[in-house]
């Protein structure tokens, strides 16, 4: 079709000035880069509000409609300077968003269906118009297709300043109306009940996104500019739980993606910027998904593994304690403890095995044979093991007991479990929220809890003894 | 009627419909005195719709609502609203404090940001609902009862004279329930009207001064003990609750002590 970006003779081309290596920075290149950076920042900021309002696809509808505006503006005026074409794009983008809102209200369609209709129809119309212009070979029509995929190499310094000014305007608008936008995004019903014009605020928000999409056209193109609005906020959300930092981060991510895309596109003449910008944004997003603290995949996996490890350690300790008796007089076998802690679940047995080694390293467990002479600590556990596994273990081997420090730990653990059960039974205020897998001491995390009667209660009536291991 | 004699809240022949089916039908209801007022009825009875209609959040087919004898537009600042908890995304990146501060936005108006006065007010409201320690926590990390109390604190920060609560006790543990009811009663004791959409008959009998039984139409309204009779409950819950007889008796016995 017409995506032959090598023949871009539209606006004063800067490809030559930038050089094939793209490193020979002229004044013009620097200004363009700064303009695109501003666009990226503003796109991330405006996109954050759209995402929080759960309207991430509004930008997509607006973006796909821009081609129609660009083509029509060229047909009507015969001019192809950036301000004229972008003005056309803005009209069609806002119109598309308006149609979207009307479809939602009048036709009572679902949001996603309405968005799909607007995207398809407006983009189709835009392609038809541009194709018609190109086919007729109207003078100077060659630049239009660059709006499809973005091509910053053709920007002049004046164009870039225009884009930067518009971006600055968007950022200022967001900063000024942030309170209202966040209120509506979080709880529209409450906002409406408090007298805020939710419809108007929403209209302003989608118009802002439409404007941002138009401003982003030269950098990313109609098909991909929406990614510049959506991806940076999604990446930013991974790193923070507050709107302010999220706005700033999304802006910076957008800026980085835009600048990276533009720089990469100067490596080869004729390389479209849009795909590179989007790929850069996607890379930032992917990294965020993986390594962000708390929400990131890695942090969640590590946290999960850590929780499993700690939980199993406690469970194994509890089994040892149950086998050795309150005075630690009896020894026990590793195999039996693992059996009781993990049953026949393979992964759980592995975890329990690791927990056992950890307990040994910590000095919680020690070999029963270390105690010179006296009783055979293994007898009882051997008998129990036989009962549990239905097979006679080899007597005399693998006998362990809790060290004195381990005994203290195990006793404390059992005390806490009992105390927490009492806390839950008595529905102590905030009790449910204070209990964590780490099993903190209830009297430390719950103010004003009187545990004494509770402790007495579980000692005198050790209900559900199986569970207190 | 003089302004002083106007009811605090008055529904006049309010009718709401989705399509041709009425959800609320011919509701006439006037609440003259500050009190803890329960709107009781089965699921789908239109209780929440009643509040939304009062606030102009759903279109009415007919009828009107007056606050202090005036339309809502003139007195919005005096009316506080607490939507159902499930209506918002609790993964939203704001802290508890941020949400409570939103209660002050109505008074602040456009563009002005909350300052020290608002922060101090929000903190007092958080203390009142027992969440003073959690001001900086992200709202997603709260229990259901705590989330509901955040909404309650946001309503308190509105400093309204009349409060409309939509199911503030749904999905809330017993402890939080007690706490929330105490705060609601405290608001009432400040001479304000507190209207609560509620589903649980037992706690209703215990806490509300007056109630309205609603099932599409207004079945009965008045002092709680007078309204929650087996006969009225049968007409409200007709065929929907099997244990109705038993429930009605339990409620009648427990009628709120003065």
Number of domains of chain B: 1
How is the quaternary structure best described? heterodimer
Q: Estimate percent helicity of chain A.
A: 55-70%
Per DSSP E runs of 2 or more residues, the count of β-strands of chain A stands at 3
Mean pLDDT of chain A: 82
- Widest beta sheet: strand line-up of chain A: 1-3-2
SS-based class of chain A: mainly alpha
What is the C-alpha radius of gyration of chain B, as a whole number of Å? 18 Å
Task: List the helices and strands of chain B in order.
Answer: EEEHEHEHHHEHEHEEHHH
Chain pair forming the biggest interface: A-B, 29 and 38 residues
Q: What class would the helix/strand composition of chain B place it in?
A: alpha/beta
The chain-level mean pLDDT of chain B equals: 87
**Largest sheet descriptor of chain B:** 6 strands, mixed
CATH topology of chain B: Rossmann fold
CATH topology of the largest domain in chain A: ABC transporter involved in vitamin B12 uptake, BtuC
Q: What CATH architecture of chain B do you see?
A: 3-Layer(aba) Sandwich
Q: Strand-residue fraction of chain A?
A: under 5%
| Number of helices, where a helix is a run of at least 4 consecutive DSSP H or I residues of chain B | 10
Q: Would you identify the CATH architecture of the largest domain in chain A?
A: Orthogonal Bundle
CATH class of the largest domain in chain A: Mainly Alpha
Rough outline of chain B: globular
Question: Summary?
Answer:
The complex is a heterodimer of chains A (469) and B (258). Chain A is mostly helical and 469 residues long.
Blueprint of the fold:
The complex is a heterodimer of chains A (469) and B (258).
Chain A: H1 15-18, H2 27-52, H3 58-77, H4 82-107, H5 111-136, H6 146-149, H7 157-176, H8 178-186, H9 188-193, H10 198-237, H11 243-265, H12 273-291, H13 297-324, E1 332-333, H14 334-342, H15 346-362, E2 365-367, H16 379-389, E3 399-402, H17 404-425, H18 431-434, H19 442-445, H20 452-460
Antiparallel strand pairs in A: 1-3, 2-3
Chain B: E1 9-18, E2 21-31, E3 36-40, H1 47-54, E4 62-67, H2 72-75, E5 79-82, H3 96-108, H4 116-128, H5 144-157, E6 162-166, H6 174-189, E7 193-198, H7 201-207, E8 210-215, E9 217-223, H8 224-227, H9 230-237, H10 244-254
Parallel strand pairs in B: 3-7, 3-8, 5-6, 6-7
Antiparallel strand pairs in B: 1-2, 1-4, 8-9
Helix pairs in contact in B: 3-4, 3-5, 4-5, 5-6, 7-10, 9-10
């Amino acid at each position: 079709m017409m995506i032959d970006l090598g023949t871009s003779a539209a606006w004063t081309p800067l490809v030559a000035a930038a050089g094939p290596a793209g490193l020979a920075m002229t004044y013009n290149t620097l200004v363009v880069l700064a303009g695109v950076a501003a666009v990226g920042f503003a796109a991330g900021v405006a996109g954050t509000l759209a995402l929080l309002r759960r309207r991430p696809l509004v930008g997509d509808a607006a973006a796909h409609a821009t081609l129609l505006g660009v083509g029509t503006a060229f047909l009507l005026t015969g001019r192809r300077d950036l301000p004229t074409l972008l003005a056309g794009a803005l009209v069609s983008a806002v119109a598309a968003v308006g149609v979207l809102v009307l479809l939602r209200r009048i036709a009572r369609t679902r949001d996603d269906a309405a968005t799909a209709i607007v995207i398809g129809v407006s983009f189709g119309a835009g392609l038809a118009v541009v194709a018609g212009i190109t086919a007729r070979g109207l003078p100077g029509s060659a630049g239009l297709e660059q709006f499809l995929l973005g091509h910053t190499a053709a920007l002049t310094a004046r164009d870039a300043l225009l884009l930067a000014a518009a971006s600055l305007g968007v950022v200022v608008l967001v900063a000024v109306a942030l309170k209202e936008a966040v209120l509506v995004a979080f709880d529209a019903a409450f906002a409406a009940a408090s007298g805020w014009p939710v419809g108007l605020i929403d209209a302003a928000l989608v118009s802002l996104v439409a404007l941002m999409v138009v401003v982003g056209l030269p950098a990313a193109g109609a098909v991909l500019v929406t990614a510049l609005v959506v991806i940076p906020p999604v990446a930013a959300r991974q790193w923070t739980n507050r709107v302010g930092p999220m706005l700033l981060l999304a802006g910076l991510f957008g800026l980085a993606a835009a600048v990276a895309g533009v720089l990469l596109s100067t490596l080869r003449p004729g390389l479209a910027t849009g795909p590179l910008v989007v790929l850069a944004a996607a890379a930032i997003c992917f990294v965020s998904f993986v390594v962000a603290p708390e929400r990131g995949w890695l942090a969640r996996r590590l946290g999960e593994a850590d929780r499993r490890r700690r939980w199993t350690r406690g469970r194994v300790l509890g089994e040892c304690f149950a086998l050795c008796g309150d005075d630690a007089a009896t020894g026990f076998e590793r195999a039996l403890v693992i059996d009781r802690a993990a049953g026949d679940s393979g992964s759980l047995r592995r975890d329990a095995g690791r927990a056992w080694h950890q307990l040994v390293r910590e000095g919680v467990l020690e070999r029963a044979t270390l105690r010179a002479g006296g009783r055979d600590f293994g007898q009882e556990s051997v008998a129990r093991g036989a009962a549990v596994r239905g097979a006679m273990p080899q007597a005399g081997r693998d006998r362990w007991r809790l060290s004195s420090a381990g005994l203290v730990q195990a006793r404390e653990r059992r005390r806490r479990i009992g105390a927490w059960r009492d806390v839950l039974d008595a529905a102590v205020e905030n009790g449910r929220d204070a209990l964590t897998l780490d099993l903190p001491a209830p009297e430390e995390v719950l103010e004003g809890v009187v545990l004494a009667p509770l402790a007495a209660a579980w000692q005198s009536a050790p209900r559900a003894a199986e569970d207190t291991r | 009627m003089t302004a002083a004699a106007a009811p605090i809240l008055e529904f006049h022949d309010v009718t709401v419909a989705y399509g041709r089916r009425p959800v609320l039908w011919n509701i006439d209801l006037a609440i003259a005195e500050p009190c803890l007022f329960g709107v009781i009825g089965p699921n789908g009875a239109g209780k929440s719709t009643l509040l939304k209609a009062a606030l102009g959040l759903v279109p009415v087919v007919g009828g009107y609502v007056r606050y202090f004898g005036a339309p809502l537009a003139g007195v919005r600042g005096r009316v506080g609203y607490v939507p159902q908890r499930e209506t918002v995304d609790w993964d939203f990146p704001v802290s508890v404090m941020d949400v409570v501060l939103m209660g002050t936005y109505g008074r602040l108006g456009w563009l002005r940001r909350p300052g020290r006065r608002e922060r101090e007010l929000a903190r007092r409201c958080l203390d009142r609902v027992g969440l003073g320690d959690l001001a900086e926590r992200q709202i997603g990390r709260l229990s259901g009862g705590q989330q509901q109390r955040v909404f309650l604190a946001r309503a308190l920060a509105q400093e309204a004279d009349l409060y409309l609560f939509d199911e503030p006790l749904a999905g809330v543990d017993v402890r939080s329930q007690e706490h929330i009811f105490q705060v609601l009663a405290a608001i009432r004791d400040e001479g304000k009207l507190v209207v609560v959409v509620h589903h649980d008959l037992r706690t209703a009998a215990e806490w509300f001064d007056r109630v309205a039984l609603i099932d599409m139409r207004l079945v009965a309204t008045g002092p709680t003990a007078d309204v929650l009779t087996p006969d009225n409950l049968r007409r409200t819950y007709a065929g929907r609750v099997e244990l109705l007889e038993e429930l009605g008796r339990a409620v009648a016995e427990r009628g709120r002590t003065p």
